[in-house]
Design brief:
Distance between the termini: 118 Å
Oligomer: single chain
Helix content: over 70%
Radius of gyration: 35 Å
Largest sheet: none
Number of strands: 0
């Protein structure tokens, strides 16, 4: 039996088919044809409402509003049209009109969906007192709706934690609630629970804010490579490109002394800063970080240029003065820098950089007792300081006070079990005490935490050479060279290993590389002369012996001045 093409049902059915095919304009045409049919009867307001729905899909909100208003002229209690109008005005950010409709809807029907819209509009209008009053008037079903609780949590800081916990209990997959609760826990310094929540968020979605906070947590735990990995993910997945994640990334790079990467990150952060006024309060810290990076690169001119950008009224000004004195120290003005820093120390003991700078000068002057004392004072003022504890251990090792160094190294590992340098410190102590097995064991733990630590592989190679195990030494030293091919001492040590293995040709090639990288190092020239002599290469042996003699004569002349 053929369909009657003049039947409203036919056109309505065709409209649904076209809508399912996402052919919304054609679907609208079918419904207009349905309205012109003789058999439309009292179905016309529902058809008009459906036309409004299709205009929403076409994002033609003006025409959609016209259709719903037509419906409401005939039936001012038409809930669907009221609901759709509320949604449209919300999208158009006409929150005042949306609020009128939301109130009207809740009078007609106290459904949870209507209350959700009501709360959304109140929140957009910052009517927090009304939100609280409305929430207290809800029945049990609406009171425990997670969307409503989430909106209320945004407006009630005193109950926020409990509300977010309730949301998660109701809906364990609520990512927004977990993210907000994680941020709240982070601010309360409950880092373990915050980390657990953020990890749940990133398992569900690549959320840049969650990655950012994970980076901050790992930084606080001195797991800097993990921090960097999370900051990079935050940058990758941040579609807005307005969040200044580069700032924290730069600081994390500074923590592990990756200076080139830190410089690139802080400069990118500055470029974002230029277009984003909310970050203006960190401008001085940006200049300070750049100054610090340039100082580490021995670029004194650029370091001072950036430090001079910091205003005297800035909270970071004293830190800048400390760093400027450290630049004087590096230029050789050690006593002047020492006196200036000691003077600053008398009036400013809330400056962690001051402790580390004075400690560094005392260490350079081999005033080990004073260096340890200043770092201990720093540790009292900043008990969570990873660097002060690390410096105390290293200085005690340099001062050959191994028992005291072991005591602090144990504290170091207890406080920072995932920090590679803690195990490096223990390895140094055991090495000095000739407990090579224990030293290798600590270095193995270090490598488990950081497989890209070239120094750890080098140190293992050195110890294995001392144990006359050159083949294993070569294996570890090759990894060190692959990770960092710029260190002269790595080439010298692998040369030693090849020489122990009686592969004198390779030993000679590697020591020549070491000399090329560090031509001032006398011991490398002596090593080259020895290897050349062992290979029977008299000419090369004579050449390097002459280099050794020349270097010793120059050193003698310098000492006599």
């Amino acid at each position: 039996m053929m369909e009657n093409t003049e039947s409203s049902i036919y056109y309505i059915r065709k409209s649904f088919e076209l809508k399912n095919l996402k052919l919304y304009k054609e679907a609208v045409e079918m419904l207009y044809k349905a309205l012109s049919c003789d058999d439309i009867g009292d179905k016309n307001i529902e058809i008009i409402a459906q036309i409004g729905d299709l205009y929403i899909l076409l994002k033609n909100y003006e025409r959609a509003i016209e259709q719903y208003e037509k419906v409401l002229d005939k039936d001012n209690s038409h809930v669907h049209s009221l609901h759709q109008l509320c949604e449209i005005y919300f999208v158009l950010q006409n929150y005042t009109r949306a609020l009128e409709i939301a109130k009207n809807l809740c009078k007609k029907s106290k459904s949870v969906e209507n209350y959700i819209n009501y709360f959304k509009v109140l929140f957009k209008l910052n009517l927090f007192d009304e939100i609280k009053e409305l929430y207290n008037s809800l029945d049990d079903e609406a009171l425990h709706n997670e969307e409503i609780m989430y909106i209320v949590s945004k407006t009630e800081p005193e109950n926020k934690y409990e509300l977010l916990e309730d949301i998660i209990k109701t809906d364990s997959n609520n990512i927004n609630a977990k993210l907000d609760l994680g941020i709240l826990c982070f601010k309360k310094q409950d880092y373990d629970y915050a980390k657990e929540l953020f990890e749940c968020v990133v398992q569900a979605e690549n959320n840049p804010k969650a990655y950012y906070y994970l980076g901050l947590i790992f930084n606080k735990k001195n797991e800097h490579t993990k921090a960097i990995d999370n900051f990079l993910k935050a940058i990758k997945y941040d579609k807005t490109k307005v969040n200044n994640y580069y700032f924290e990334l730069a600081k994390a790079y500074c923590d592990i002394n990756w200076l080139n990467e830190a410089q690139i990150a802080i400069l990118r952060s500055l470029s974002i800063l230029a277009n984003a006024t909310p970050y203006a309060d960190t401008i001085d810290e940006h200049y300070f970080i750049l100054g610090w990076i340039y100082s580490k690169k021995n670029d004194t001119k650029n370091a001072i240029l950036n430090l001079d950008m910091i205003e005297p009224h800035s909270a970071i000004y004293n830190k800048a003065q400390v760093l400027k004195n450290m630049l004087e120290f590096k230029k050789g003005n050690i006593i002047e820098a020492k006196l200036n820093l000691e003077k600053l120390y008398e009036t400013d003991k809330d400056n962690p950089l001051l402790y580390s700078s004075l400690g560094e000068i005392y260490k350079e002057l081999k005033l080990y007792k004073k260096a340890v004392e200043i770092y201990k004072d720093g540790l009292k003022a900043y008990p969570d300081s990873f660097s002060f504890l690390s410096e105390i251990v290293d200085i005690l090792i340099d001062d050959k006070d191994y028992d005291e160094a072991l005591k602090y190294a144990d504290d170091f590992i207890t406080n920072y079990p995932n920090c590679p340098s803690a195990y490096n410190s223990l390895a140094r102590i055991y090495y000095r005490q000739k407990e090579y097995g224990k030293a290798l064991n600590e270095l193995s733990k270090l490598i488990q935490l950081d497989k890209n630590n070239a120094e750890a592989f080098y140190f293992m190679g050195l110890i294995l050479n001392d144990l006359a195990n050159p083949n294993d030494a070569i294996e570890h030293l090759t990894i060190a060279l692959n990770l960092n091919p710029t260190k002269a001492k790595y080439y010298a040590q692998i040369s030693r290993a090849y020489n122990l293995a009686e592969n004198h040709n390779d030993a000679f090639l590697f020591i020549k590389e070491a000399i090329e990288l560090a031509p001032e190092e006398l011991s490398y020239k002596k090593q080259a002369a020895m290897i050349a002599d062992e290979t029977g290469n008299k000419e090369e042996a004579k050449f390097y012996q002459k280099l050794v003699q020349n270097s010793e004569n120059i050193a003698k002349q310098l000492r006599s001045k």
